[in-house]
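note to self — DONT lose this again. spent like an hour looking for the file last time. sequence + predicted structure for the chain T wanted, 379 res
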Amino acid sequence: MSLKKVFKNIVDHFHPKMLAVGVTDNRSLADEDAFTEREIKKPSPKPDEVLVRILATAVNPVDTKMRASYAQTGDFRVFGLDVVGIVEAVGKDVKDYFIGDRVFYAATQHQSGADATYQVIQADLVAPAPKNLDNADAAAMPLTSITAHDILHHGFHLPVERNSGDGRSVLILNGAGGVGSVLIQLAKYLGLTVLATAGNTDSKNWVRNLGADFVLDYHEDLAEQMAAIDYPTVDYIANLQDTNAYWDLMVAVLKPYGAIASIVESTAPVELGDLKSKSASFTWVFMLARGNEQVRLDEQGAILAAVADLLDQGVLQPTVTKIYQGLSAENVRLANQDVAGHHTMGKVVIDYLVDAQVTNKVEQTAANDVAPVTIVDVE
């Protein structure tokens, strides 16, 4: 063995590296070089953190927004928030997790992202992964499940318990997206009557199979459709689409003392005074606030633990509709391109552990079974 190789082995031992996929500038996702692969320093956990070997990640709209707004400094930036993986090391203050534990979580926006083979994460943000889900299905759930939980609990002030919303109704704008796909299921668990919007035949079937009581076509007049099914008004509205575009509708169809929760930032001011005569409320929901602001961290882990239980019990079904096989710059680019197009149902996942072979397989399943899945190879 040459001295050069010996020296490299010594350096690698004391300064281990990992594969990461990221960007150095803000290119179009149509550009095949939008993402690049690099070897970067493998992180070490701080006292309150765990080091996770990542098994699968999911792509969310917020990932594409973060990349699109990336300041072109030339620095290498890694994105990605949803993770399932194996704990490889623990900080000295961590008591609840051990090496070898399989966990899942949503990371924060203020750290190096999950499109890598390893990541450190504060232990309070972590929960044991669902036992009955494979890696791809588990990776799809953290961010959207926490968001759906926050809409119901923080936005609508409902306990996330069976039948806690019995006799009440919710309108979900964009029922087929990642958050909507979980929210429909949780809302039904609470006993709510669910009205969900969708656009094409596939997405309408998707939200119906998830449990929506009524499926509304967002291309048509929603107020007229609601009146036609004897739900001219609802108790709650979850805006997962466009706060400004739907503001007048939401004010009109909300019951007195009702509540609106929105996860989509406004592009112009909205007139909150419109809700005063109904004594109704409006709440922004942003699940990343806990990690970003470093508040109520243990709450996030507790929510995920409850979600894992519901998944293992079969109350919640996984929401994966597309899987890219293997961590690579091309797979990360294509997954982000899918999500940025705003026509994806459910969640898009990158599974690190499967071989990248051409399959393009679609599995159609029963109405209340797991979602149709497309497995994609980009060889």
